[in-house]
Specification:
- The protein has a four-stranded antiparallel β-sheet with strand order 1-2-3-4. A three-stranded antiparallel β-sheet has the order 5-6-7, with helices on one face.
- It is an alpha+beta fold and about 200 residues long.
- The termini are far apart.
- The protein contains six helices and seven strands, in the order H-H-E-E-E-E-E-E-E-H-H-H-H.
- The mean pLDDT is about 80.
- Strand 3 and strand 4 form a beta hairpin.
- The chain has a domain of about 130 residues: Pleckstrin-homology domain (PH domain)/Phosphotyrosine-binding domain (PTB) (PH-domain like, Roll).
- Helices cover about 30% and strands about 25% of the residues.
Length: about 200
């Protein structure tokens, strides 16, 4: 929870003067914002559920809808946004936000303000993607040195000339690989049914 005075200072810094529409949603922001979270853009409009405000902070994108008997808050992190579509008509503009789990369509009569809002969100999304691209997540290349068992002394190397299979075994005795399973006793069991036991009697 954030101090309401901090929220008011942030709104004054942005020069926002809200009327009847959006006032109830703004009063909920102190309960929604986190410590260190700053409001960068705020716009009033409507979506499929009615009138609401959309807030862009330095951390995430928020849609807040406060009615008399219910509250709806949509929280979308910038790194979860997959696509942003902006379009304007003669009256009003539309912002379509698609994420991996949500699909929001927000409309406002303030076309230029919604366009600036969209530009800010696009920059935040690109910034998050560039941070992921800069992170070095590549698997390090492993190099394996030559085993000491394959090294020959000068005398052993001289005895290999001419190189044949027999001369190699004379110079370097092959290592016998012991199979641990071959050393274990093997017990076989046969399932005996009731009729088999009766037949033996």
């Amino acid at each position: 929870m954030v101090d309401p005075r901090v929220v008011k200072q942030q709104l004054d810094r942005l020069g926002l003067q809200l009327t009847f529409f959006g006032e109830a949603e703004v009063n909920e922001l102190p309960h929604i914002l986190m410590e260190g979270e700053a409001i960068e853009h705020l716009i009033v409009g409507h979506y499929s559920g009615g009138f609401a405000i959309m807030v862009a902070t330095n951390f995430r994108l928020l849609l807040v809808d406060k009615k008399l008997l219910f509250l709806n808050v949509e929280d979308i992190r910038y790194d979860m946004i997959a696509e942003l579509d902006y379009g304007h008509q003669m009256i009003g503009a539309t912002l379509h936000v698609r994420s991996f789990s949500k699909d929001l369509k927000f409309q406002s009569f303030k076309k230029m303000k919604l366009r600036d809002f969209t530009t800010f969100v696009q920059h935040k999304v690109m910034q998050m993607r560039q941070q992921y691209e800069k992170a070095d997540n590549r698997i390090p290349i492993q190099t394996f040195g030559e085993s000491e068992n394959n090294l020959l002394t000068p005398a052993q190397a001289q005895s290999l000339i001419p190189l044949t299979k027999e001369s190699w075994y004379r110079a370097k005795t092959p290592t016998q690989i012991v199979n641990p399973y071959a050393q274990s006793p093997l017990m076989t069991r046969r399932r005996i049914g009731p009729y088999t036991a009766a037949a033996r009697k």
